[in-house]
């Protein structure tokens, strides 16, 4: 009888890929985790219990066939593992790097619940796809039949690119329009290289282009351009994401030296590409030699504090109004930041800023957690008389993002939006009340995860494919 390749979680402990020492990784923007070797990937995959109800799969927004590709990895069938992985995920090597697995698949692993430590799903997913790239198993789209229908996609982030990939597989003509000079959206300019090295994103963009996706970059879509796109294509997908930064209306908030997270991260990522960035070179968006305070507790805040460390800040502090247990960002990212020298000031909120010609400090009020708010989270309350000033040369606001006013930008007052300004689109299909206009990702959900944008893009593409198929059937009758 063949030896059982799985169910080894009792004999083999959980093991992550080696993480570079904090002192070494602080010096560059390279990814902090090494790759699994083949034997280690197979060993860790063999810990999967192959449970009858795979909670890892059901808690993945893409419903990836995780137990299947873990078993294939454990038995050395890596090309099949890759094919299984990419069947449900357009960008498995990206999700393997940046998904908060601790909150999704790994956080719901059955053996984790039994005290044996979760399977390292994300690291194995990354290993499988990186191996596929190395071996030439990743191929550009080659549809069996080219179709005449075309779709215009506004926004080259993960939602738009996932839809483009699915549509091209069906032979539909696809053009992606984006305001930036490189495709990828926040994958390219928002997420730092130590979490997602940029060549990983660029090779995906190149693969899509090789597969027939047309990119129109440096393209600001206004009313005239939207009308042109809608007239040119049989369907339009809005996948712009949410880029309007939430602000703070308090004393001193307009002082120089107080910056938006998206501006700070974009400047840093552009420098990683070797671009000329005036606001970085003149010091405005550069943390070198500065006391940095980041306000916020999400993943964007974690990106900002860890970027500041790498740029050579003299000190980096993060203010968050709740405690560690209630912060929205990844606990793994908090740990990485602490290892690298970031100081977290929990239960601390800004009430204003000091300085004359530029910011010199943040006026901080200490908080305590009171009764739960409408969402069930404990609401922070001010502790009277506990205020103090946190000295700062650079303050970065990482308070989240809101949608831009797309009905005005696009000259489409009939574009349906919710009271939050997000586009009102049908669940699963992304269809709006405007004929032939769809929307996916953060512009529908609000600021969310990359994996959800991918899910929305794929679902929307499938709905459009089915709609075109129904049209063709009617025309044939």
Task: Report what the structure shows.
The chain is globular, with a radius of gyration of 23 Å. The chain has helices spanning 22-25, 38-45, 55-58, 66-74, 78-86, 92-98, 110-113, 121-134, 158-169, 186-189, 198-210, 223-232, 261-273, 278-281, 299-311, 331-339, 406-409, 442-445, 450-476, and strands spanning 150-154, 173-177, 214-216, 235-238, 244-245, 258-260, 291-295, 315-319, 343-345, 348-354, 361-372, 378-382, 388-391, 394-397, 401-402, 437-439. It is built from 19 helices and 16 strands. It is of the alpha/beta class. It folds into 3 domains: 22-134, Fumarate Reductase Iron-sulfur Protein, Chain B, domain 2 (Orthogonal Bundle); 150-242 and 403-476, 3-Layer(bba) Sandwich (FAD/NAD(P)-binding domain), CATH 3.50.50; 246-401, FAD/NAD(P)-binding domain.
Say what the CATH topology of the largest domain is: FAD/NAD(P)-binding domain
Assembly status? single chain
**Number of E-type strands:** 16
Number of structural domains? 3
Radius of gyration over C-alpha positions, nearest whole angstrom? 23 Å
Total helical segments: 19
CATH superfamily placement of the largest domain: FAD/NAD(P)-binding domain
Shape, per Cα inertia axes? globular
Give the % helix: 25-40%
Helix/strand class: alpha/beta
Q: Strand order of the main beta sheet, please? A: 3-2-1-4-16
Estimate the mean pLDDT confidence.
Answer: 94
Largest sheet: 5 strands, parallel
Low-confidence stretches: none
End-to-end CA span:
58 Å
Q: What share of residues are in beta strands?
A: 15-25%
- The CATH first-level class of the largest domain comes to Alpha Beta
Task: Supply the CATH architecture of the largest domain.
Answer: 3-Layer(bba) Sandwich
């Amino acid at each position: 009888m063949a030896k059982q390749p799985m169910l080894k979680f009792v004999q083999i402990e959980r093991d992550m890929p080696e993480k570079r020492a904090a002192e070494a990784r602080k010096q560059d923007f390279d990814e902090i985790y090494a790759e699994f070797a083949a034997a280690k990937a197979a060993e860790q995959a063999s810990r999967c219990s192959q449970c009858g109800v795979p909670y890892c799969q059901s808690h993945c927004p893409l419903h990836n066939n995780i137990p299947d590709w873990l078993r294939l990895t454990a038995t050395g069938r890596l090309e099949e593992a890759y094919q299984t992985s990419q069947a449900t995920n357009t960008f498995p090597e990206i999700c393997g790097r940046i998904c908060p697995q601790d909150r999704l698949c790994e956080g719901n692993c059955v053996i984790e619940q039994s005290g044996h430590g979760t399977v390292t799903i994300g690291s194995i997913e990354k290993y499988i796809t990186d191996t596929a790239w190395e071996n030439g198993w990743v191929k550009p789209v080659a549809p069996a039949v080219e179709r005449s229908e075309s779709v215009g996609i506004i926004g080259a982030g993960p939602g738009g690119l996932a839809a483009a990939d699915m549509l091209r597989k069906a032979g539909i003509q696809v053009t992606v329009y984006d305001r930036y000079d490189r495709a990828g959206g926040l994958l390219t300019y928002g997420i730092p290289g130590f979490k997602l090295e940029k060549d990983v994103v660029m090779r995906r963009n190149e693969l899509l282009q090789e597969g027939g996706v047309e990119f129109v970059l440096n393209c600001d879509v206004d009313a005239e351009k939207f009308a042109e796109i809608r007239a040119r294509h049989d369907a339009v997908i809005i996948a712009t994401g949410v880029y309007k930064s939430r602000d703070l209306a308090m004393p001193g908030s307009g002082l120089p030296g107080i910056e938006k997270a998206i501006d700070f991260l974009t400047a840093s990522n552009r420098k990683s590409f070797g671009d000329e960035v005036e606001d970085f070179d003149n010091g405005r968006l550069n943390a070198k030699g500065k006391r940095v305070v980041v306000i916020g507790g999400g993943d964007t805040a974690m990106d900002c504090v860890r970027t500041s460390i790498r740029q050579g800040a003299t000190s980096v502090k993060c203010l968050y109004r709740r405690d560690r247990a209630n912060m929205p960002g990844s606990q793994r990212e908090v740990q990485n930041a602490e290892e690298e020298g970031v100081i977290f000031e929990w239960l601390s909120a800004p009430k204003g800023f000091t300085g004359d010609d530029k910011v010199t400090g943040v006026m901080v009020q200490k908080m305590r957690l009171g009764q739960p708010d409408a969402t069930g989270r404990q609401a922070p309350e001010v502790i009277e008389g506990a205020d103090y000033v946190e000295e700062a040369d650079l303050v970065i606001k990482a308070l989240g993002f809101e949608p831009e006013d797309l009905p005005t930008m696009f000259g489409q007052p009939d574009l349906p939006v919710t009271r939050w300004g997000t586009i009102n689109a049908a669940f699963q299909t992304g269809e709006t009340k405007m004929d032939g206009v769809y929307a996916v990702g953060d512009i529908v959900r609000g600021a969310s995860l990359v994996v959800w944008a991918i899910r929305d893009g794929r679902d929307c593409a499938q709905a459009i494919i089915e709609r075109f198929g129904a049209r063709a059937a009617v025309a044939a009758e």
